[in-house]
């Protein structure tokens, strides 16, 4: 038995998902003739009460397209210093859009409206880059799967409206936040100009993200996706996996969250564990007193795999393929350390 807690992206399609994929009706999506992709795009747009959605091969491409849609070269966006768009998208913000990032030192990857307000460059001060976009991440990945208080998001929306800024949500794990907080996707559709959501994280599909947005903004999205090389043909097979995931794998995220909390409680009881970060969803971040590499190697010998995140932090991520049996075994191993 191999226990892989490196990420919630390591899952394999379930048999139900594979059946849905094999039975998908497909066509050429570059001509917008793939019926399954069209159903997926309409379904997710409707879930969030947004005008329209576009299927992307990856979350990175969906975020990068959004940034391109909202900005002009030379402008600046505001984001938390932990933001995925800044840290883990290969420098795409500058490469694809010629945009710089004003980074905010937030709390667990989350920023406040007050912090945003003081980070906006005065629009008539032409020496500074023009601020045109605010990006937030929910849940915040590097922040340990932290969930925003929706009231703060609404406050940031107001700051954006007052200052004529666009507002993008990197919602790769928004599903986890919706389940953890009992929120309605339509709340998010009301306040953001664009939202990206991933099908290949907690939802367990092999690939795919969607970018949702207002029609006036999204009109150009298909052109941007094309220039980023993201046009896809009979991709309905993958859209079918996404549809299956949305119908079957959202509510069960609560189970991943429960397991993560139980792992956190087990860690709290261990003498060599220095600190366990608060656990809102399916990500557990902790620090230990000893050598991290030794701990990772010892666990690997017991077929338990996970990553260090730098700065002495270690991370476990629970997911669809982390079963109850694995969980029981893992808790036993932990308590014997
Ligand atoms: C995974 C992730 C993405 C997108 O990643 P891809 O691997 O390109 O699909 C974007 N934002 C966050 C916060 C993520 O965790």
The SSE order reads EHHEHEHHEHEHEHHEEHHHHEEHEEEH
Bound molecule types: pyridoxal-5'-phosphate
Number of contiguous helices = 15
Fraction in helix: 40-55%
Please state the structural category: alpha/beta
Organism: Aquimarina addita
Protein name: GntG family PLP-dependent aldolase
Family: Belongs to the threonine aldolase family.
InterPro entries: ArAA_b-elim_lyase/Thr_aldolase (IPR001597), Low_specificity_L-TA-like (IPR023603), PyrdxlP-dep_Trfase (IPR015424), PyrdxlP-dep_Trfase_major (IPR015421), PyrdxlP-dep_Trfase_small (IPR015422)
Folded structure, characterized:
This protein has 15 helices and 13 strands. The protein has 337 residues and is of the alpha/beta class. Helix content is 41%, strand content 18%. The longest helix is centred in the last third of the chain and has 16 residues, at 253-268. Helix 1 packs antiparallel against helix 12 (236-248), helix 2 runs parallel beside helix 12 and helix 13 (253-268) packs parallel to helix 15. It has helices at residues 15-22, 35-47, 59-70, 84-87, 92-97, 113-117, 150-162, 174-181, 185-191, 215-218, 221-227, 236-248, 253-268, 292-301, 324-335; strands spanning 3-4, 52-56, 76-80, 100-104, 131-137, 166-171, 194-198, 209-213, 273-276, 283-288, 304-305, 307-310, 313-317. The mean pLDDT is 97. The chain has a seven-stranded mixed beta sheet, with helices on both faces. A four-stranded antiparallel beta sheet has the order 9-10-13-12, covered by helices on one side. A two-stranded parallel ribbon has the order 1-11. Pyridoxal-5'-phosphate (PLP) is lined by residues 58-60, 63, 84, 137, 141, 170, 172, 198, 200-201, 209.
């Amino acid at each position: 038995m191999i226990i892989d807690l490196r990420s919630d992206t390591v899952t394999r399609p379930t048999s139900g998902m594979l059946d849905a994929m094999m039975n998908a009706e497909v066509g050429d999506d570059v001509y917008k003739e793939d019926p399954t992709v069209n159903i997926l795009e309409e379904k997710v747009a409707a879930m969030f009460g947004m005008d329209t959605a576009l299927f992307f091969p990856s979350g990175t491409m969906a975020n990068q397209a959004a940034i391109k849609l909202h900005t002009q070269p030379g402008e600046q966006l505001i984001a938390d210093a932990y933001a995925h768009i800044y840290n883990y998208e290969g420098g795409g913000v500058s490469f694809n859009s010629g945009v710089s990032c004003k980074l905010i030192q937030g709390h667990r990857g989350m920023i406040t409206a007050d912090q945003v307000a003081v980070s906006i460059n005065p629009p008539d001060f032409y020496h500074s880059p023009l601020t045109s976009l605010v990006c937030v991440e929910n849940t915040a990945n590097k922040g340990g799967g932290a969930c925003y208080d929706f009231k703060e998001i609404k406050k940031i929306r107001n700051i954006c409206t007052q200052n004529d800024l666009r507002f993008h949500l990197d919602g790769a794990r928004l599903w986890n936040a919706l389940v953890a907080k009992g929120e309605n996707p339509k709340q998010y559709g009301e306040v953001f100009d664009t939202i990206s959501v991933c099908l290949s994280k907690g939802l367990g599909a092999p690939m795919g993200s969607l970018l949702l947005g207002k029609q006036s903004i999204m009109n150009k999205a298909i052109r941007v996706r094309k220039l980023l090389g993201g046009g896809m043909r009979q991709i309905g097979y993958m859209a079918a996996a996404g549809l299956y995931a949305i119908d079957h794998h959202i509510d069960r995220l609560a189970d991943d969250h429960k397991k993560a909390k139980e792992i956190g409680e087990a860690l709290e009881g261990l003498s060599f564990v220095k600190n366990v970060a608060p656990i809102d969803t399916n990500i557990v971040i902790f620090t230990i007193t000893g050598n991290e590499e030794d701990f990772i190697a010892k666990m690997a010998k017991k077929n338990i795999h996970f990553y260090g995140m730098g700065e002495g932090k270690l991370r476990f991520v629970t997911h669809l393929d982390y079963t109850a049996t694995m969980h029981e075994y893992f808790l036993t191993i932990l308590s014997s350390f």
